[in-house]
Structures are given as structure tokens and as C-alpha cells.
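User: Batch of two.

Assistant: Item 1 of 2:
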Amino acid sequence: MLNVTLRQLRYFDALARHGHFGRAAESCSISQPALSMQIKELEEALGGLLLERSARQVALTRFGEELAQRVRDILRSVDELGDFARASQDRFAGRLRIGMIPTIAPYLLPKITKNLTRMHPELDIRVRETMTPRLIQELVEGRLDTAIVALPVSEPSLTEVALFEEKFLLVRPGADEGTPVPSREMMREMRLLLLEEGHCFRDQALSFCNMQSAPPREMLDANSLSTLVQMVSAGIGVTLIPEMAVPVETRSASVSLARFRDPEPSRTIGMVWRKTSPLARQLLQISEVVCLSAGKVRARQSVRSQKA
């Protein structure tokens, strides 16, 4: 009989993801020697080497790579067993892992957390903030329960729930207050400040201006909306920000705001979760809390399961 524990599988999954004993041990809240011992015992139980160990890094063997995917599937199924048990209860309690993109989290997270804690005091809310591709990967692998992102994500294994539409505003130096609002064609001739590669908001801004990428001479990327607004305040260029960011990002900046003519640039904010999640009913309820927190009316015909 194969003597393998769930603990060993979770430790191996952490090591496969981090590629480093120290970081994997830290993520599992154990010591590095303890993690190393559990991995060695797992190798002995399976009768094969999982890792190629060197002084600087850890690489998976071919056997280890094949096992890593199977282990992720096993752990996801085990987690969903717990979710199934929780879903059968009348109250919503226990761990809830929510992912959010950086252009949403600073503005909605405090209100969402406050409302969820008030409505479901037994929830243990854990938040992960990172860019959309990483959130989707972690969601598919079972490391998140749901994510709040800009739609669509077009991942076949996920259900998408559109929540509300959000407009983008033009941010210009304070001296530009009252001047005509440029068209999208004129925007292509201006110094447009953007978030760095990987942010979906960057792609949305470029799409509005009918640009595939920013011209190299105009390239000046930032990793936060706050930095973009402060650069505009310094007279370096112009940028676009979502409505929800305006109260936070412009309160201490000498900038002017303007709305574009119709059709205004916008994005669809929504939630996504695995089609197989037993928590689907509860997550749908949470989507209503997100709309409440944003002060928005729920979009019609909002639930869409992607076809494989």
C-alpha cells in the first residue's frame, strides 16, 4: 500500500511552484529541514527522484513534472471536498480566497471586506493581489476560490459573472482644466502614460486609442495608477484611470479630470470561479456584495459559463 500523506503532497506542490526550498518552506509555515525531510520521504514512498538538487536551485525531474500536475489535481479535488461540505451548511463560514487585479484591489477591497465581514462574520477572508494571468492560473489550479477581474478572461474551465461597467476618465495636468477633450485620434499624438506590460488596464487604454503599442519615444511605464497620476501632476503627460480610482488617486495631485465623448472607454468588472466549484451559489451571493460595495447596479444577463 502506498504510504503518501496529503501534507507531503502539499509540500511538494509548494516546492514545485516556488522552485526553492526556503520559499516553499516559508509558504507552508514550516522549517526548511522539515520540508526537505517530507520531500525525501515522499520520494522513498514513490520509489523515484522528484528533484534535481543543486546549490542554487531546485529543478523537477521528468517524473517530478508529471507528478506535479497530478498532485495539483488531487489537492484541488480535496479542497473541493471541503468546499462541498461548507456549501451544504446554512451559514457561509471558513476560508475564502479572493484574487483581485491591482487596478481594483486598492479601491474596492476595503469596502468588500467590511461588508463581507459584517454579513458573514465567520468567514476567513484571504486576498491575493496580482495581474490577471497569474490570478487565472491560481484559480484554475485551485489556489483561489474566485477572482475579481476585468472581463472577458475566456478560460474554458471558468464561469464568468459580469457585475458592472466602469468608465475611464482622462487625467491631464491642472493647467489643462477646461480645454477641449481630445478625441481618441488626438490621443495617439499625445504622451500617453501607461501601466507596465502585463496589466490588462494598459491594453484597454491602448485599445481605446486604436494603438497596438505605445511608440518607443513616448514609452514611460509605471506599476501603479498612483504613479501615473503623480507623473501627470508633474506635467510629464496624460493618462487614463478607472472611475473607482479617482477619489483615492487624485486627492493629492494637481490634475484635471475630463470625460470623453461617447462612446466612452470602459471596462466590464466581473467575478470568475471554477465551473466545478461547490461554492458557486455562495460566490454568486458574494458577487452581489461586490456590486453593493462598488455602489453599482448588477449587470443584466451577467452569468456566462465559457464553452470548452
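Item 2 of 2:
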Amino acid sequence: MTTVPESTRLMLELEGTVEENLNRHLGVAKEWMPHEYVPWDEGRNFADLGGEAWDPEQSRVSPIARTSLEVNLLTEDNLPSYHREIERAFGRDGAWGTWVHRWTAEEGRHGICIRDYLLVTRAVDPVELERARMQTMEAGYDSGDKALLNVFAYVSFQELATRISHRNTGKYTQDPLCEKLLARVAMDENLHMLFYRNLVQASLELSPDAMMRAITDEVVQFQMPGAVIPSFVRKAALIAKAGIYDLRIHHDEVIWPLLRQWKVFELEGLGEVGEKARDELDRFLKALDTQASRFEERRAAAEARSAARRA
């Protein structure tokens, strides 16, 4: 008698859920055109075509806004690696494969329109941006062969984190055109998050212990896919200091909304594995909350000192 691998069993049992959510997604996703979000009339040649080389004075956004825009774009640039990872986990057949390619096609718009906007408006240094793109894509992204349930959990948190990062970056730029563009990108990310979130919900019903273990692992070990970007740690620190994306946002606006949606701490009927994972999650969240509060206190103190020096 042949034993069916657990991942295969789950994929077969979740096929209907995937198809249902694929159809829901296709029904609510609105067509949009990247070129309609780029102010093309602001464009002009760079130096090699007889124009002007980039200079920081040409940018209408602050240095920290430029950093956040670059990190967001470089994260989107690694789409070929993400496609490989999602296709490896979900396969090419049936509703699973249809979703993989639809998701990839929609994600592809993000890098296109953000890059066009940044280059046309001269918001960032195009030479440094291209060098960073090469380095980022050469590094690629490796999920470490996550198990299927871990993939569900990770992409749920990651898509929500990306949505918030885009929205907050757009607001921080204080450029209405940029904010409109990133708000549109964030809408895609939100729909993607809903798809994956619903897979986690269904998996909690099918394999509650294993899904709880996966949720805990991905919360505790979470790392943004942009971690391979050159100087990511330094850039992430600047972004956090500006309040665009920090530990408090990650705790309050990314992790907890999903945990509440899944009713993680109300779920009954868990076995030993699930209960142990939930206890670990609870301890980690309390520690993360404390860490976020300490960061906020240090940031507020630094801002107060800076304001005093300016007075």
C-alpha cells in the first residue's frame, strides 16, 4: 500500500479551497495599467543621451523616503526567485498552478510602475539603484524549502507587511503621485494576503496542530524577503526610525490582525504539538511587544534631544 505524502494529501484536500479563492480573487481584482500612474511628461534624458546626470537636488522626496522607495522596489525586483519558490510549493497543475501564474503576473506590475515612476521623476539615483538591483537579484531569494503550511503562514504575514510598507512609504514621501501609485500597489498586496490568509484558515481546520506549529515558526523566524538587499539592516533601521515600518507596526498591524482573524488563541481541540506551539507564540508576542515599546521610547528620546538642539 502506497503512503501519500502529507503535503500531497493537503494539496488534494485544499484544491477546492484554492479554486474557490482563486475565483473570488479574479472576481474582485480590478484591471489597472502601470503606465497610467507615471508622470511621463516629467521625463528627460540622462547624461549619456545628452541630458543631465542625476543629482540629489532633483529629487522631491527626502533621503529616508528615497531609501524606503529603493527597498520596496528592490524587494519587488526579486520576483523571479519568489515565483520559483511559490511554484515549487504549489506546483503548476489545476487551480494551484493558475494561482501561481496569476499572482506572478500581478506582482510583476509593481516593479514596472515603481521603477518607471522613480526614473521619470528622478526620485532616486538610477546608477545606484541598478547596481543594487543586480546585487539583489544575483543573491536571489531562498525560502529554505519551507513546508507547505509554513509557506501559507509566511506569505500571509509577508503580503500584509508589504502592503503596509508600500502604503506608509507613499504617505511619507508627501508626493500625491507617489502615494497614489503605492496605494494601488498595496491594493494588490492586500488581495494576495487574503488568498493566503484563507488557506491558513482552511488548514487550521484540516491539520490544526501542524498549522499552529507553522504559524508560530513563521512569526518567530519572520524576515522580510528584502533582507538580501545590500545594506538592508542599515536601511531597515532608518525606515524604522522614520516610523515607516517598525517593530510596533509589525506587532500591531501585521501579526495580530492575522492571529485574530484565525482565532489562534481561541482555537479548541489542539493536541500537544499545537498547544506547545501556541504557548511559544504567546511568549514570543509578549517579548516582541516589550521590545517594540523600548524601541519607541528610545526613538522618542532621540527625537526630543534633536528638537532641543534645534531650539
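The chain has a mean pLDDT of 96.
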